[in-house]
Amino acid sequence: MMTESQGSRAFQVDLRGLVDLLSHHLYSSPRVYIRELLQNGVDAVTARRAIDADAPGTVLITAVSDGIRIDDSGIGLTEAEVHDLLATIGRSSKRDGLAAARQDFLGRFGIGLLACFMVAAEIRVVSRSARTPDAATVEWRASDDGSYTVTGARTPRAEPGTTVFLKARPDAAEWLAADRVRELAADFGSLLPFDVGFAVEGAEPEPITDRPPVWERPHPSPTARRIALNAYCERTLGFTPLDVVDLTVPVAGVRGVGFIHPHATSPAQRTRNRVYLKGMLLTDRAEDLLPDWAFFMACVVDTDSLRPTASRENLYDDEMLATVRDALGGRVRSWLTSLAAGDPARLVEFLGVHHLGVKALARHDDALLSLLLPWLPFETSEGGVGLAEFARRHPTLYVTRTVEEFRQVAPIAAAQGIGVVNGGYTYDGDLVAALPRVMPGVTVSALDPDVVTASLDLVDPDVELAMSGFLTIARARLDAAGVDVALRAFHPVGLPALFLDDRAARFERDRAEAASDADDLWSGILGALQQSGPRARLVLNHRNPLVSRIAGLGNPDLIGTAVESLYGQALLMAQRPLRQADLALLNRSFLGLLEWVTGDHREAGQ
Ligand SMILES: Nc1ncnc2c1ncn2[C@@H]1O[C@H](COP(=O)(O)OP(=O)(O)OP(=O)(O)O)[C@@H](O)[C@H]1O
């Protein structure tokens, strides 16, 4: 036999604790209480319209002296429903019935009314059910200590529907002040499908709903529509858009528009996407609604296919959200396609600001890559030409891994007719690598210095022999910097010297520098890493008149200083970060040359 202590009992709920939990951990701000009230009013009208299509559909919020009241012409509640639904946390009438019918409602969790305790000390609901013609008006009065009473109302309602009264909590009165209530109601409720109004007690109500939304309204012309949408974007998102993208995808249950940011945006910066769920504002910072690559856009959409989280401040991350995200991504893609076909000037303007986002997208989308290839900016050995055009001219393309490598070889490659693309910028290397997929016949290889060296002509052995004295001085001067000197003939003639190195040579130079600065232990370890491998090379251009003149100078000291200057100039051309030792060398050679020019050296040497 079961003893009494073993029998089943009902849970007790500490209402204050629960409200505390809601306000601190579920909702971002008490402001959402208005949304919960509006939502219940709208759902009640929806339920009534399901049994009586001609029933009135109004929700009116009124600011009264000690709080607010909200009247709806909805389905109302019987006394039994009041006990069952209002007094049971987590109970909702909106989960009953067919799935299709459930979809019509905004609420589902049975906690919405509780949110009102974040701002109210007392909630009073006066309701008359529309289900039975002679239903009594019932009054439910609940206090934030968790107690409630149900009575017959003193004054019966003439019509079915519900009135909810909130009596302000002294510490939350600001949330129930008339101006605040009007502002919140307009923010959450402007697109609701029924007539929502706001009034200060005793005054005429003003409309809150403003439908259809700007993007669905008829406009006299496309320009008028654009002006209206720009104004809407300025008002709600705070910027004037570069362009507007239509995001209405009926099969995905989404209607809305995307606004292109007028300035470059970072992928790390969360865009402000405003999402309405069946006309009720869910959030103005929805994440995951747009694909990550669309960070150049903020959107405003109304959807009836997505589900909210329990806080109703974000979207539930399910397969439907993924489908909608793909559909919206598709719309952005078609917008880009139509720009490319019909308004290239605007496309260029857009890419000028957002090419990074587009490149990120094109990496995984060959169709888009081939479409936008003519417009996407790349740096090539022939300047900033379109990649498609460049690849047509150079079916064998070379791509550098870093910006420095590009700087180093671009001038010489251009002179030799080698096509080199700078793959050092974000996404560019990936996109160039994808080129053969969208331009069959094009091959892409990574550029290493040998490709360039191979196109440098060897100098006649007799000439080299005649210049051996000069070369010996040059090699001796640059040996300490870890650089070899070679003599070649190449174009452009105006380029006196070319600095060539690769990763291994760079590593070796950095290691040597670190070893010379390090204490004994470290220099021992770094010394063990020493490579006898490749050294960087300074390639002097025999065709360059300056190099010939330097080689012809009689004074070894002056030759050495001039070679150091050529090395310094080649380093600067390569735009690589200068090491301490390079800076010292540059400084020395510059001052040395000045001394020669001003005659100090000559006098001292005489
Ligand atoms: N204005 C109203 N008219 C008629 N019934 C109402 C009204 N407000 C609340 N109810 C009833 O009370 C129930 C509980 O409301 P509550 O707001 O707590 O939860 P919900 O709206 O069902 O779900 P959610 O927590 O998702 O908002 C509702 O399911 C509904 O049946």
Automatic annotation (TrEMBL):
ATP binds at residues 36, 40, 72, 162. GO terms for molecular function: ATP binding; ATP hydrolysis activity; ATP-dependent protein folding chaperone; unfolded protein binding. InterPro entries: HATPase_C_sf, Hsp90_fam, Hsp90_N, Ribosomal_Su5_D2-typ_SF. Keywords: ATP-binding, Chaperone, Nucleotide-binding. This is Molecular chaperone HtpG. Belongs to the heat shock protein 90 family. It holds the Pfam family HSP90. It comes from the Bacteria. Signal peptide: none annotated. It comes from Stackebrandtia albiflava. NCBIfam families: PRK14083.1. The keyword Glycoprotein does not apply.
